[in-house]
Every structure is written in C-alpha cells, then in structure tokens.
Specification:
single chain, 285 residues, alpha+beta, Fumarylacetoacetate hydrolase, domain 2, nine-stranded mixed sheet, 29% strand, globular, FAH, Fumarylacetoacetase_C_sf, metal-binding, Fumarylacetoacetase-like_C, isomerase activity
Length: 285
Amino acid sequence: MKLIRFGSPENEKPGVILENGAWVDTSGFGEDYDELFFENNGVERLKSWVSEKADNLPKIDKNTRLGPPLKKPSKIVCVGLNYAKHAAESGMKVPTEPVLFFKATSAIVGPNDDVIIPKNSKKTDWEVELAVVIGKKASYVEETDAMDYVAGYMLHNDYSEREFQLEKEGQWVKGKSCDTFAPIGPFVATKDEVSNPHDLDLWLKVNGELLQNSNTEDLVFNVPELVSYISQYMTLLPGDIISTGTPFGVGLGLNPPRYLNPGDVVELGIEKLGSSKQVAKAYTK
C-alpha cells in the first residue's frame, strides 16, 4: 500500500494510491498517519478497510498538492557517510560504526514544495536518500528482529547547508535543519511493496543534469543494522524516520564544489518509491 497526504500545508488529509494508480481519500477511516496510527497496527487495519471500500472512496485530482506522507513524526535520525564513495568525496573515512545526527522535524515539507535557500546561505547542497519509517516502538532491538520494526520506506532529500554544517562550531544539525530541508515522499510504501530495500536504484538531477546515480546495495550499514544500532541509544517511536545516507554526487564533492542558486530545479527518485521535484527559492521575510 502507498500512503499519501494531500491538500494545503498544515491542512493535509490522508489518502492512498490504489494498485490501479488512482489517488483516493481515506479521511473516512478516521485516522491520520501519525504515531498512534502506526502503533495501533494502522497499516493492516487501513488495508482491510480500503479493500472493502475502494470502489466508493472519493477520488483525488492528481494536480492536488501532496504533503508529507507522515504527520509530525517525533524525530528524524540521519546516518552520515553511509556510502563509501560519498565518504571519499567528503574527504572523510568510511566509518566503522554508524555516524548519527538529528534533523529537526520542522524542516519537513511535501515532496514537491519549494526548497528555501536559508538566510546567509552560500552552500546549500542536495542529498537523495532512502528513508525508513518505523512501525512500532523499538528499544534494544536485535539485528535479526529489526525488520519487524519497519513499517515502510520513502524518498527523502536531505538538504544540507555545508557552511553551517562543517565550517561552524558544533554539530551537523545546524546545517541540516533549516526550514524546507526535509522534503519527504511522494508516498510511504509499506514494507510489502519493497521486497529488498538493499537493491534500489536512486538518482538526483539538478537542472536536468544527472549528478547522483547509485543503488542501495552500496550502503555501508544496511537497514536492519541501522534499526538495531540506533535502538541501542534511543527509543524509536512509531512513525519515526531513519534517513540512511546519500551516495556520491553531492555538490560538496564536485570539483569545483557546486551549490544551489535561486531558480535551480532539483529532481530525484528511488526505484519503487517515486520521485519528487523542488525549485530553489531565495529566503524572504
């Protein structure tokens, strides 16, 4: 099943994409895609409900804005340097254990919303990433059991301001959390839609030029390793996001480095998880 949310910002409604490609409104189910939904076996309950009512559900015009397919997750846990070639282009060693950092949930926007270049930014960069959605509370999870805690997957562009991230004092979070820096979706694909998350092509273009082109088989730490590892240090709640890292081809790694300017168009996608598009805009009050 593919979960979507649609409508104007902060007023999104839940929906699904049917197998025939139609977008339908599931507001009648009475639940949005939040922590309680996933905690209470919402995916399976919704699947049964949709199968009974699919023919009578209101259709959604495909010109309608798609919002973030999750409602207010408690956290975004990101994994740095999780593709060997990206570590190399960043001038850093491949880590021997996952490098973790947070991204503020206030950065979340819809998949095709504009990306706003932050005030005083000179180095806004792109990062196509596979995001994992947690399906149930996870604490001290064994790697062999980790996939039982996964609800599904989605596309994420982990926008990053490299000066804020790398040239300022302190942690990476400053360069990761600017408003609009976490476009997610277009949909959450439930786990049954993706038989192998470690064999998915992923790509990103800027102004039509292909800059990132890789496959999740190149992940240094795979999904069960990440779920288990992170759960040793914090409790993952239903609906939480793990963003698994980006492959080579970011602006920081180009020679010379290249960053976004107002008017630039970023397009990205992951096999089985759809695509998204953001237009870069300058910050204004």
